[in-house]
Amino acid sequence: MSYEPVTFETVKFGVLNPLSDTSSDRLNSQAHGYATGYAQGIRAAEAVARTQREVLARAAAVGQSARDEEHAAAIAALHAAAAALHACTVPVLEQASTVMVESALLLAEKIVGAELSNHRFGAKAALDRAMDGVDAPTVRQVRMNPKDLELLGLETLPGTDIALIPDPSLIRGDALTAFDEGFLDARIATALERAQIALRRAGT
């Protein structure tokens, strides 16, 4: 009995997980490295930009605060200047207004006095003032200076039965209108006095 020698062929196994030194692994490593570096760069850039924005925001806030303070100071200065000007000018204007009122009244008295120096004109004007704006049937009498009535030559108001009564207490050019309830004062002096009071009240 003979035996033939048995020979075995060498089995070759494929490399399942060889150590990374292939071109594909190098590419993967490079890509990973690039991605990591890119992400770090982006984060660093964002951090720098955020820091710059915060610095600019703080600078803008400081600038705005400074401008607000300057505006407030300018407005306060304007108010103070206006108050000072008002304090200086108002008394002068009030004094000037008072002087003008007094001057106007004095001038009015002069003008009225000059007009009434014409006694006929003064007597006629007194009678007109006595009946101006009143309801004639309600008038009982008109009192006037006797010389004015003598100059007019009237005993009653023309066209009515209203009596014209001489009153020596009235100066020439004055008149009083009598009603059942009282009198209408048509005297020049009292009219000027009322005007003076009204003007002084308007000036205060």
UniProtKB/TrEMBL annotation:
Residues 74-194 form the Flagellar assembly protein FliH/Type III secretion system HrpE domain. Signal peptide: none annotated. InterPro entries: Flagellar_FliH/T3SS_HrpE, T3SS_Stator/FliH. Keywords: Bacterial flagellum biogenesis, Bacterial flagellum protein export, Cell projection, Cilium, Flagellum, Protein transport, Transport. It holds the Pfam family FliH. Needed for flagellar regrowth and assembly. Belongs to the FliH family. This is Flagellar assembly protein FliH. It comes from Paeniglutamicibacter sulfureus. The lineage of its organism: Bacteria, Bacillati, Actinomycetota, Actinomycetes, Micrococcales.
